[in-house]
Amino acid sequence: SMLEENVLIGQGTSVGTKCCITNSVIGPNCKIGNGVLLDRAFLWNDVHIGDGVKIYQSIVCDEAEVKEDVTLNPHCVLTSQVVVGPNKVFPEGTVVSLHPADEEEYDEDEFSDDADVSKEESKVKQKGYNTEEVGLQGRGYLWKAADENDANQEEQRQSLWGLTVKTEEESESESDMSFGSEQIDSRTASPQMDDIKVFQNEVLGTLQRGEEEKISCDNLVLEINSLK
Q1: To 10 degrees, what angle do helices 191-213 and 150-161 make?
Q2: Fewer CB within a 10 Å sphere, N or C end of the chain?
């Protein structure tokens, strides 16, 4: 396997053969299959990735599973304990959750491993998973995009995903750069999108500081885990 620049791998994680991983953070106790491609991926704790999976600029939360030959195109989010696949391609911006999108109440702990899975299991009895949306072995609900105009959607995408980790030289030359122009209007951003944005910014900031201060990979993984 080939690990390229800006890769952090947590303790207890195993990586199969013929994988290519770049600009990615992988939490502890994850299992990565063979022939996997990860590009700007954020995998939290206890994530399972099957053979032949491709993940581009996406987040996979605690205990989620991506079955073999699944492709996550940029800006996808799989929340805790979701299962997708196998043999499925998810378009850009897909969000899959154990919470049905039409729930009246929003659970603030949706992205944490403390989400109340037992409640979700009882709801599944009333509303089954759509295998056409999440795959034959999938477990979760596909969230539809909010009814907003294209300009607002593009602004949110840039705010959430448009940041990259810069080298030390680039950082020094742009030390006065502000993220103010990338803030989402609070009237249009959902609480869920705000949570993703905050986590993304904090992870990128931690990676930037780790590169500048030469912090060990193990310590960086601990810091990133504490951000959740």
Answers
A1: 30
A2: N
